[in-house]
Automatic annotation (TrEMBL):
This is Transporter. It comes from the Eukaryota. Residues 1-20 are annotated as: Disordered. It is found in: Membrane. It is a multi-pass membrane protein. Residues 8-19 have a biased composition (Low complexity). One of its GO terms (biological process) is amino acid transport.
Length: 600
């Protein structure tokens, strides 16, 4: 029988069931037998969508995981933390932290076939606040991430010209500090010099000179408003019908970046000085292994693979029950890490070329990080290549597609979570709900479209999904491994795949991955460097606002715990027993007489 025609096995009275989790042993006693895992959900009134093809799912996962951060964050962190030496902690953190959690989320979503909010009823009800926190974090990310895509769209439109507008200093927005050294001799580059690409980004695209900082962010840039409106229009019509439409769109948005990366890599390798960039990128600095490189490697792999955002749960929930999510996890996470590594060559061949042209060290050229690397450094090099218009068009098209499929994943996580939590209200109204969500995201993004919008983007990027998402992943891992129980979870995986996860995966889920996450969260909270952008020092009050933004999502978890305990009847011990026990066990008739009962 094919996987699509098989039904999930319900764990009846005769089924060999896993041992209870430790918290259950402390709070509840056996009734008539060992506890069963919650049965896979029964067919609903409105049948759940399924991916049309397996590749639709794989491309959606790859598209979400491979985003703009792979192109701008990984290369910068790699050279900053010892070049080739960085690959050692990066690989170890991927093997022991990122990939196990990636696998866990795919398995959870596929088994329970529901979104990030209602899934906790079947795992550990008291942790349901995690689902609400994930949705709030998803909204914060949408408020700034789509604005970055809108910047790329503005560049894409501006690239359709014979001479790129950031190729010279002869434009109305340029200042006396503008220095164009390409194709010229005896040009002195000083600390006050600004390239044409930098002035185009700051003074033309952002018009940040019209803002006095976060105190005075100014009015809205109507050109960026139109770009963002177009981006959200594309997002809406890609998501409004569910995975049937988004699964088709990702065939373009997830594959096109690889074609462009390959073209840019070949072009970059033929530039003079490219080898200098590659040597700088990969030259190992073994002394860095004794520094904070381990924290940076762990943070990079967790943010890159994206466990905790609810996206993997949502996308996997539309799989067939017996789909091999174990193989999917290994393949897609490997593709993600290799893409990051490949992006480093694409970026650093060009940085080596720029260093050759400026007659400076690669280190002096490679100071830009984050969006500046994509909107200043790389466009500057493209402007001085043969065929600059063509390379600019495909580069910014790549950036748009990289951003779009990550947005698809992030918003699909929110859509799936909320619609599965409130099916009585939202069933059959997906188009209207998605329209409302997109409208909220658009309105929430307006402050990032102002003259000082880049300052708001930086603030949201630092605090909207920083420590809060790592703390959410930590609690999610603890809830599944310690409260739901690793044996019960392994039993669920065996029901889907026919084999139990090995000892390595169990050790990672129970101890190693939570320890790594706790290490990153504590290190991040203890080490808070000053926040700056374009030489603007963020005021103290803005940092406080940032912490409030981060706390506003995480606070959902303890608040829901208190709510659940207060509204559950019984003594405190009985309440705890009910709140940590999967609700499906109590409701499922097949589990009657074989579950656990509270101590009375």
């Amino acid at each position: 029988m094919s996987p699509s025609s098989q039904q999930p096995a319900h764990h009846g009275p005769g089924a060999a069931a896993p041992a209870p989790s430790l918290p259950e042993l402390l709070l509840i006693k056996p009734c008539l037998g060992p506890p069963a895992s919650p049965a896979a959900p029964n067919p609903q009134t409105h049948p759940r969508d399924k991916w049309s093809k397996k590749m639709d799912f794989l491309l959606s996962v790859v598209g979400f995981a491979v985003d703009l951060g792979n192109v701008w964050r990984f290369p910068y962190i790699c050279y900053q933390n010892g070049g080739g030496a960085f690959l050692i902690p990066y690989t170890l953190m991927a093997v022991f932290g990122g990939v196990p959690l990636f696998y866990m989320e795919l398995a959870l979503g596929q088994f329970h076939r529901t979104g990030a909010i209602p899934i906790w009823k079947r795992i550990c009800p008291i942790f349901k606040g995690i689902g609400f926190a994930i949705c709030i974090i998803g909204l914060y990310v949408s408020f700034y991430y789509n604005t970055i895509i809108a910047w790329a769209l503005y560049y894409f439109y501006s690239s359709f010209s014979g001479t790129l507008p950031w190729a010279s200093c002869d434009n109305p927005w340029n200042t006396p500090d503008c220095t164009n050294y390409f194709g010229k001799s005896n040009v002195t580059w000083t600390n006050f010099s600004r390239s044409p690409a930098e002035e185009f980004y700051t003074r033309k695209v952002l018009e940040i000179q019209k803002s006095g900082g976060l105190y005075d962010i100014g009015g809205i840039r109507w050109q960026l408003l139109l770009c963002l409106f177009l981006i959200f229009t594309i997002v809406y019509f890609s998501l409004w019908k569910g995975v049937k439409t988004s699964g088709k769109v990702v065939w373009v948005t997830a594959t096109l970046p690889y074609v462009v990366l390959l073209i840019l890599l070949i072009r970059g390798a033929t530039l003079p000085g490219a080898w200098r960039g590659v040597v700088f990128y990969l030259r190992p600095d073994w002394g860095k292994l004794l520094s904070t490189v381990w924290v940076d490697a762990a943070a990079q792999i967790f943010f890159s693979l994206g466990p905790g955002f609810g996206v993997l749960l949502a996308l996997a929930s539309y799989n067939h029950f017996h789909n091999n999510c174990y193989r999917d996890a290994l393949v897609t996470s490997a593709v993600n890490c290799l893409t990051s590594f490949l992006s480093g060559f694409v970026i650093f061949t060009v940085l080596g070329y720029m260093a050759e042209m400026r007659d400076v060290e690669v280190e002096d050229v490679a100071r830009d990080k984050g969006p500046s690397l994509l909107f200043i450094t790389y466009p500057e090099a493209i402007a001085n290549m043969v065929g600059s218009t063509f390379f600019a068009i495909i580069f910014f098209l790549m950036m748009i597609t990289l951003g779009l499929d990550s947005t698809f994943g992030g918003l699909e996580a929110v859509i799936t979570a909320v619609m599965d939590e409130y099916p009585q209200v939202l069933a059959g109204r997906r188009e209207l709900f998605v329209l409302g969500l997109i409208t909220v995201c658009f309105l929430g993004s307006l402050s990032t479209l102002t003259y000082g919008g880049a300052y708001v983007v930086k603030l949201l990027e630092e605090f909207g999904a920083g420590c809060s998402i790592l703390a959410v992943v930590l609690l999610e891992t603890i809830a599944v491994s310690w409260f739901y129980g690793i044996q019960r979870f392994s039993h669920d995986v065996k029901a889907m795949l026919g084999f139990t996860p090995g000892l390595f995966w169990k050790l990672c889920w129970v101890a190693i991955s939570p320890a790594l996450l706790a290490f990153i969260v504590i290190s991040s909270l203890l080490d808070q460097p000053p926040l700056t952008l374009f030489e603007y020092q963020y005021p103290e009050w803005s940092i406080s606002v940032g912490f409030l933004i981060g706390a506003s999502s995480f606070i959902c978890i303890p608040l829901y715990m208190v709510y659940k305990l207060v509204w559950t009847p019984g003594s405190l011990k009985q309440r705890l027993a009910v709140c940590i026990r999967p609700e499906k066990l109590m409701r499922d008739p097949q589990a009657e007489g074989v579950g656990m009962a509270p101590v009375l």
